[in-house]
Amino acid sequence: MTFDQHPEAMDRDEMAALWCMSLAEGPLTASERADFEAWIADSENAVAMQLQAGAWNLVAFSAGKPEIVRMRREALDDYHRSNRRRWSGHELGISRRWGMGIAATVLVGALSVATWQSDLFSSPSPALAEYRTDRGERRVALLDDGSRLSLDAASEVDVRMSDERRALTLVDGRAGFTVAKAKTPFTVAAGDKMVVATGTRFSVERLTDQVHIILYEGSVRILSRDSVGEHQIAVMSPGEMLALPAFGRPARLTIEKGRESMQAWEGGQLEFVDVPLDSAVARVNRYARKPISIADDVPTGLRITGIFNASDAAGFAQGVAALNGLRVTDSSEGLVLGQ
């Protein structure tokens, strides 16, 4: 589905109804799917989509009846006749009430072709709770199910809890999870990867274009999600660490012994064992008032080992410079590691 009229000019609920109708027509193209995923990434858009889907579910039981099939066909015919004018910008188009009526009529088609986004069509929709920390801030939260959430600095986690699901998304940064035991799986999504647990203790980190998972207690399954569905790619045991691309399948899957302590960063320290310099800098910058950057003349492949005070970015920079023959330049924009 393409819009000649800028999407922001449309009402959020109206957009959700239009996406429902587009899904009902058949599978999305690659570009349409990219547009939809970009739109649904906004939490308010996701809620609007869930509300639309919830309304559709109210008529699902009768969707196979002949009169409903006929109404759906007529509604889609009307939709095709009107959408060219609507999306050309010459006419604001179908009213919200009419759009929702079409959305309800074409329920079954959308549900059948959009299974890759099936979590949007579950009802009821658990409420979204957002947990965030600013740069230099750490936070601990007790979730509704009794699980404990620890957020590193400059991190964000979205949480949806219900009797049927405990679904969390690591949007940015790093978080530790001490999971209360329950029959309902506890899932943490990061990129297109998902950690599935029932009662365990682990941490997940979004670092540049990678996802880092460390398991401290229990057992977890790691899934990769795509338009086809979910695929298990690993099972982890206590003390193991796994680094994966945030999106796409890894070229090689290597599970190593965990070398980083969750207790360290929760206590205000950053512990590095043979960590690439750019990854170490990215972690330090979650706390730094003056962010650190790496100059182009710094040799690639430098790795860092040591324990540093998370709140002392300057001390980290000076220590790295001293050990690697570099120098630190202080400017109004931040600290620069260079030759």
Notable features of this structure?
single chain, 339 residues, alpha+beta, 13-stranded mixed sheet, three-stranded mixed sheet, disordered N terminus
Estimate the global geometry from the Cα principal axes: globular
Strand content: 25-35%
Helix content estimate: 25-40%
Q: What's the main sheet like?
A: 13 strands, mixed
Description:
By secondary structure, the protein is of the alpha+beta class. 31% of the residues lie in helices and 32% in strands. It has 9 helices and 18 strands. The protein has helices spanning 12-25, 30-40, 43-57, 66-88, 96-105, 107-113, 262-266, 277-284, 313-324; strands at 128-132, 139-142, 148-151, 156-161, 166-178, 186-190, 193-197, 201-207, 210-217, 220-225, 230-236, 240-245, 255-257, 269-276, 292-294, 303-309, 327-331, 334-338. The strands form 3 sheets. Strands 1, 2, 3, 4, 5, 6, 7, 8, 9, 10, 11, 12 and 13 form a 13-stranded mixed sheet that branches. It has a 3-stranded mixed sheet with strand order 15-18-17. The chain has a two-stranded antiparallel sheet with strand order 14-16. Strand 2 and strand 3 (148-151) form a beta hairpin. Helix 3 crosses helix 5 (96-105).
